[in-house]
Design a protein that fits this description.
With about 750 residues, the chain is of the alpha+beta class. It has three domains: about 65-80 and about 290-410 and about 535-575 and about 600-680, DD-peptidase/beta-lactamase superfamily (Beta-lactamase, 3-Layer(aba) Sandwich), CATH 3.40.710; about 85-275, Biosynthetic peptidoglycan transglycosylase-like (Penicillin binding protein transpeptidase fold), CATH 1.10.3810; about 415-525, Beta-lactamase, CATH 3.40.710. It is built from 22 helices and 26 strands. The strands form ten sheets. Strands 4-3-5-17-18 form a five-stranded mixed β-sheet, covered by helices on one side. Strand 25 and strand 26 form a beta hairpin. Helix 12 (about 300-310) packs across helix 13, helix 15 crosses helix 18 (about 495-500) and helix 16 (about 470-480) crosses helix 20 (about 575-590). It is elongated, with a radius of gyration of 35 Å. Keywords: Carboxypeptidase, Cell shape, Cell wall biogenesis/degradation, Glycosyltransferase, Hydrolase, Multifunctional enzyme, Peptidoglycan synthesis, Protease, Transferase. It comes from Streptomyces kanasensis. GO terms for molecular function: penicillin binding; peptidoglycan glycosyltransferase activity; serine-type D-Ala-D-Ala carboxypeptidase activity.
């Protein structure tokens, strides 16, 4: 006995019968599924569709996922990325042959019936009864479109995809109701347009425009009769009828479509026979998806843009929400990448470091005053083969970089100098700077609890001939370790911590620097080239730090401009301090450890850095209008760069000025070719009248100002062992607390 709903009215079964327009539902085939005679009508049963009245009246029609184009600053294409290769086009941009072919083979009565083709249903019932199974379906083009929308909405969610494609009565009834709504709202032409844009044609091509480009390298509006018939035939089974892998099956299927078009009167019999006689002539364009296809080595920058999008709340509240927007695609992303700078960086990389070398290099360039990332490249290409990688050595771990970054060595010393200058130390400050000395007994920290040298850790200079006293200019040019340890001992660690915070300096794992003297003087902690280039850009910008930025604008297919993150600029130090650092770092290039990096036609400044055992070598430098960081080393930190060939050149010892310096020079020179060459604002670095110290062999100057010998300086008190060079015997473990040779682990010297 049928059960009535509360309040009267038709039962769920009766409603379904009325909806389908079929008086006897048993045995009916809905879109290819034959309903069993018994048990199929329990619509309210657990595991089936909801009560018929509860099915939503309006179907969501999400924007179709499309290609996203990532462009450089001049509008040139860097790469095309997509989860589904699709370009939506209007119906007028689709060949009439294609429109007729898809209708003829998929739903020849499309323009005659509504959402449900009752004749088709009955025909399918009869055929399936004869065959004893499901031999023929009855889905209309509209129903197929609805199903594709569900699939599109599921995206990469496997559970949702399974639900969208499950062959159940409940799913088919839901699709039918939505199909009626779609027919009412959109009309036949729009449905056909939407269907041709959403359908999968195989070979990673979604939509007719991408399919036309994939198989024939032409626009959909230019498809011939035979080409259109072949593509229309793919829809039923893209893998079975794939012309790339089985031309014979594809030809048979194409001819079936042509025959059907002739039968329904879309083309003449003669046209069909002529098209059948022609072989399928493919002109395949292989898929070019993702950052791996980027030109001029910009794959890592491309990947960085994706990471910026997925990590920045400006594009969505959660990462999941942002990922949906990214995967949907259809965006045109204009970036900050300068094509001239990028090409110059990559050319320099290829000249100096080979892909199969034991070590790698990474180069990053940033524009002072804007934070725009102009170039980002490395010697190990973006890829999955030998001597390729997906790790971006230029950025922090959270943005696709290495786990910890790379120890920076003496490139950290300008941060100490800037902090000291901000504390009122004069640019001509002199310290004894012996060849070797213990770290100070205690150094003040931000927490108020001093760091104490309980293990007797020591520090030494690169060469035994490096014995002070030195002033700041000479100490910076020669990269004297003991000088900067003494400077830190006097000003304390907190000014350096505050300075690095203002400069955006964090470790490669995005953690703050530890308050340890080795970390805050000699660069024992790992950092990324982007971090270093951004921080040094502050000096070029006369003391104002701007956060690095990669995206200029984003436009949707509808022409809407999305909000994008902007660089945030703040003053990190006075102009006087920045100008003083610029003057000091010009000396590094003019007469110090960075001479091989000097540019001939414009002002430049920079600092070298080499870490213990020569596992890392750096040069970070800048002009008034460009800042760049170059790292060379082993990504695994296992290679000691001694007696090594890099880029076809043999080196007994690698240091910051010898390999990274020339890379920087060539990259920056090419990036700035044809651009203005402004000068730095120089600051005279004087000092009190003190006796000249006789020059030692190898000095770059015959003498320098400062106190004589190892005598104490007025107003400065040092332990006697600091003045004599000390007798430290550090035995730390290389983690910043000293190591077997008395130097802090990872510390820099050059």
């Amino acid at each position: 006995m049928p059960q009535n709903r509360s309040g009267g009215g038709l039962t769920a079964t009766q409603q379904a019968a009325k909806f389908l327009g079929v008086s006897v539902l048993s045995g009916v085939v809905l879109a290819g599924i034959a309903m069993p005679a018994a048990g199929a009508l329990g619509l309210a049963a657990k595991g089936t569709v909801q009560g018929f009245d509860e099915i939503p009246a309006n179907m969501k029609r999400p924007p179709l996922s499309q290609r996203t184009q990532i462009l450089d600053s001049e509008g040139g294409l860097i790469a095309t990325v997509y989860s589904r290769d699709r370009k939506v086009v209007p119906l007028e941009d689709i060949s009439p042959y294609m429109q007729k072919a898809i209708v003829a083979i998929e739903d020849s009565r499309f323009y005659e019936h509504g959402a449900v083709d009752l004749k088709g249903v009955l025909r399918a019932v009869n055929r399936n009864a004869q065959e004893g199974g499901v031999a023929q379906g009855a889905s209309t083009l509209t129903q197929q479109y609805v199903k594709n929308v569900f699939v599109e909405e599921a995206g990469d969610d496997r559970d949702k995809f399974a639900q969208a494609t499950q062959q159940t009565l409940g799913r088919k009834i839901q699709e039918l109701k939505y199909a009626i709504q779609v027919e009412k709202e959109l009309g036949k032409k729009t449905i056909l347009e939407n269907y041709l844009n959403i359908t999968f044609f195989g070979q990673q091509a979604y939509g007719i425009e991408s399919a036309s480009q994939r198989y024939f390298s032409k626009r959909a509006k230019d498809l011939t009769l035979g080409e259109a018939a072949m593509l229309a035939g793919l829809v039923q089974s893209p893998s079975r009828y794939d012309p790339v892998n089985d031309a014979q099956e594809a030809t048979k299927r194409r001819n079936t479509v042509l025959e059907r078009m002739a039968t329904v009167g879309d083309i003449s019999r003669a046209e069909a026979e002529r098209a059948k006689a022609e072989p399928i002539k493919l002109n395949v364009t292989r898929p070019k998806n993702g950052c791996i296809t980027a030109r001029d080595g910009a794959g890592f920058f491309c990947d960085y843009v994706r990471e910026v999008f997925l990590s920045n709340p400006v594009f969505g509240k959660s990462r999941e929400e942002r990922a949906k927007v990214w995967n949907r695609g259809g965006l045109t992303i204009r970036t900050t990448l300068d094509p001239q700078a990028q090409k110059s960086a990559q050319d320099s990389i290829k000249e100096h470091v080979h892909q199969d070398d034991k070590v790698a290099t990474a180069v990053t360039m940033v524009q002072p005053g804007t934070g725009k990332i102009l170039a980002m490249g490395q010697s190990k290409p973006y890829g999955f083969d030998k001597n390729e990688t997906q790790i971006n050595y230029s950025v922090n771990k959270g943005m696709g970089g290495s786990n910890y970054g790379f120890p920076t060595g003496s490139t950290f010393k300008p941060f100490v100098a800037a902090a000291a200058l901000e504390q009122g130390k004069p640019a001509w400050q002199v310290y004894p700077s012996p060849y070797k000395m213990p770290y100070p007994d205690s150094v003040q920290s931000c927490s108020g609890t001093p760091w104490r040298n309980v293990g007797g850790d020591t520090v030494e200079n690169e060469n035994e001939s490096e014995v002070g006293p030195y002033d700041l200019r000479d100490a910076m040019a020669k990269s004297v370790n003991t000088y900067f340890v003494q400077m830190l001992g006097e000003i304390g660690m907190c000014p350096v911590v505050e300075m690095t915070d203002k400069l955006g300096v964090v470790m490669g794992d995005d953690e703050k620097l530890p308050e340890k003297p080795s970390a805050l003087t000699l660069g024992s902690q790992g950092m990324s080239p982007l971090t270093m280039a951004g921080a040094y850009a502050t000096f070029a910008n006369r003391g104002t730090y701007c956060t690095p930025t990669a995206i200029e604008s984003i436009r949707t297919t509808e022409g809407k401009n999305l909000r994008v993150p902007r660089s945030k600029c703040q003053r990190a130090m006075s102009e006087r301090t920045a100008d003083t650092i610029n003057t000091l770092l010009r000396g590094v290039i003019d007469s110090g450890t960075g001479q091989e990096a000097g540019l001939e036609s414009r002002d430049s400044a920079g600092k070298t850095g080499t870490t213990d055992s020569r596992r890392n070598a750096w040069f970070v430098g800048y002009t008034p209008n460009l800042s760049g960081a170059v790292w060379v080393g082993s990504p695994t930190q296992e290679v000691k760069m001694e007696y090594i060939t890099i880029g076809g050149r043999y080196h007994d010892k690698v240091f910051g000025g010898r390999v990274p310096g020339p890379i920087w020079k060539d990259a920056v020179a090419g990036a700035l070719e044809g651009h203005p060459a402004p000068d730095f604002a120089s600051v005279p670095i004087g000092g009190p009248q003190q006796p000249q110290v006789p020059g030692k062999p190898g000095d770059d100057k015959p003498g320098r100002t400062g106190g004589g010998g190892n005598e104490p300086f007025p107003g400065i008190s040092f332990p006697s062992d600091l003045l004599s060079g000390g007798n430290g015997n550090g035995n730390g473990n290389g983690n910043g607390n000293g190591n077997g040779n008395g130097r802090p682990g990872g510390g820099g010297d050059r």
